[in-house]
Amino acid sequence: MTRAPLDVLIHRVDPEVPIPSYGHPGDAGLDLVTTEAADLAPGERTVLPTGISIALPDGYAAFVHPRSGLAARCGVSMVNTPGTVDAGYRGEIKVIVVNLDPRESVRFERFDRIAQLVVQQVEKVRFHEVAELPGSARATGGFGSTGGHAAVTGRPAGTSGSTQGYASVASDREGQ
Ligand SMILES: O=c1ccn([C@H]2C[C@H](O)[C@@H](COP(=O)(O)OP(=O)(O)OP(=O)(O)O)O2)c(=O)[nH]1
Questions:
Q1: Is the domain of 99 the same as that of 156?
Q2: What ligand 1 atom has the least distance to the C-alpha of 88?
Q3: 171 and 87 inside one domain
Q4: ipTM of the prediction greater than 0.90, yes or no
C-alpha cells in the first residue's frame, strides 16, 4: 500500500534552485544540488550550500547521504555521512563533500547534484538504568568478533617485496 507523502515546508534560500525531487517513484532520497561551483583537489573537502532550508515535523529527521554514482565515478563522498538534519533546524542545508580520489581533482558546477536527502521518522528514547542488561546471542562481542577484516601488517598473500600494509578480508571470504 502506498503511503501518502509527508508534507514538509521548504524555503529557497537561493530562489533559482530547483525544489528537491525524487529521481524515480520508488527512490528513498531527494536529490540535493550545490548552488556554488567548486574545485576539489585529491583529498580536499569543502562545505557546499544547497540553497534550501526546511521545517520537518517533530519526530522526523533528514539524513544527507552521498550519491553512489559520484562515489564510484569520481571518489566523492561526504565527511560526516550521513549528515543529520534535525527537525528544529531552519538553516540552509549544507553538504560536507570530500574528494577521496588519490589522483584526480573534481569540479562541481552550480546546480550539480551532490548528495541525497532521506527523510525518516526517528524515535525518542527514555533511558531506564539497570545493574545488568538482559542476555542476547551476540552478548558483548563487537568489532569483528565474527571474523574477517584482520589487519595484516606485512605483504599481501602471494606477493613478495612489498613494504606496504594491506587489510585482509581473506578470513571473511573463507567464512571464518
Ligand atoms: O550534513 C549536514 C549535517 C548537519 N547539517 C545541519 C542540520 C543540523 O540540524 C545542524 C547540526 O548538525 P549536527 O547536530 O550534526 O552538528 P553538531 O556538530 O553536533 O552541531 P550542534 O552543536 O549545532 O548540534 O547542521 C547540515 O546542514 N548538513
A1: no
A2: 9
A3: no
A4: yes
